Amino acid sequence: MGLTLTLPVHGRRGLDNSILSTHGRCPRLDLFNYHLCRSHRVRNYPIEYGVAYHAFRETLELLYIKWVVEDGQTLDVAMPGLYTLAFAVATKTWEDPPLEHKKGYLDLGRLRKACEESFRTWVDEKKQGFYKIVGTETAFELPLPSGRLFTGRLDQILEWNGRLWIRDFKTVGRKDNWKLRYNPDHQFTGYIWAASQLSGRPIDGVIVDIVYNIKTKGPEFHPTLASRTQDDIDNWIEWVEYEYDNRERCIETGVWPMRTSSCNNYAGCYFRKCCSLGSWRAMEEWLLERTIWSVWDPLEPEREEGLPE
Ligand code: SF4
To answer: Is the pLDDT of residue 243 over 60?
Structure first.
């Protein structure tokens, strides 16, 4: 029984890691989140914290280029203004979570602490000339061997000891063995492939800047490294093309299988109720009532309203 929904769908020129990974996890979830672009309305405070922290780091680099590199100010003179303006940009639309919310600790105070601490490290990096940033928030749309497009956005491309690396900022709420967590990891292999295509140079790996927060602790900083071999990249290309084929088949046939082994992952899939309704008609009514239209596109992140599951 194929898809008979009448809700609008979103045609895409390319696919990114989030869509392909979601498709691998559960094609039905991909249908809801990325083909029908349905997101639930509640605010996701960990994501808002991450977005604000990213904005702070991105703005710092952009202001540094403008004020120090182009206008010739010294870093010592520019420093107070750099921090103040970057923090103001990052918190422009900030609203603290309600006190009683289980993520209520991710408030402005926690964000300020993370920004202050990372600013101190950033100033040291600049003074020591440790890294040379060659790209910040670089959006890409690149052809795979099949000609289909892989899209995404790189937080930073930088030069370290004359070699190219990617730097990715992560804000997390679960302690992990970070080495195991990111090796293997399709997102980073895809980033390395993309940065190498963009620069025409080999990429040594990803420097992962992890900011860790839980209710009783944080922010803590846990930098870690993830590198990849050519075999890893070849395996990644096989995976991307495989998921792309599967997704195209779903669109063509209207069959988006449910992978029920994923229903209880994380805090439990938001669409569990919808998926137990059975008929497309009932599901469509549920989606209309409980979700909003929200387009996820890494090339235009500002188009997203609400939050994907
Ligand atoms: S509830 Fe389960 S089957 Fe339905 S979209 Fe979520 S993960 Fe997939």
So the answer is: yes
pTM: 0.92
CB of 165 within 6 A of ligand 1: the answer is no
Residue 85 C-beta-side C-alpha neighbours within 13 Å: 14
Q: Is the CB of 262 under 6 A from ligand 1?
A: yes
Could you give the CA distance from residue 209 to residue 85 in angstroms, rounded to a whole number?
22
pLDDT at site 240: 98
Comparing 116-120, 257-261, 291-295, the range with the smallest average pLDDT is 291-295
Span 149-174, pLDDT tens digits: 999 999 999 999 999 999 999 999 98
Is the beta carbon of 260 within 6 A of some atom in ligand 1?
Answer: yes
Q: Would the CB of 25 count as within 6 Å of ligand 1?
A: no
* pLDDT at position 305: 53
Give the N- to C-terminal CA distance of the chain in Å, as an integer.
Answer: 25
303, pLDDT greater than 60 = no
- In whole angstroms, give the CA distance from residue 178 to residue 225: 9
Residue 100 included in any domain: yes
Output the CA 261–ligand 1 centroid distance in Å. Answer: 8
Q: Is residue 90 part of a domain?
A: yes
**Does any domain span residue 119?**
yes
Q: How buried is residue 222: exposed, middle or buried, by Cβ count under 10 Å (0-12/13-18/19+)?
A: middle
Residue 66 included in any domain: yes
Residues in contact with 50: Cβ distance below 8 Å, sequence separation at least 6, in sequence order: 169, 170, 171
What's the pLDDT at 309? 45
Where in the sequence is the domain holding 72, given as residue range(s)? 44-130
Which ligand 1 atom is the nearest neighbour of the CA of 27? 8
Q: Is 5 left (phi over 0), alpha (psi -120 to 50) or beta?
A: beta
The tally of domains found in the chain comes to 1
Stretch 124-141: mean pLDDT: 93
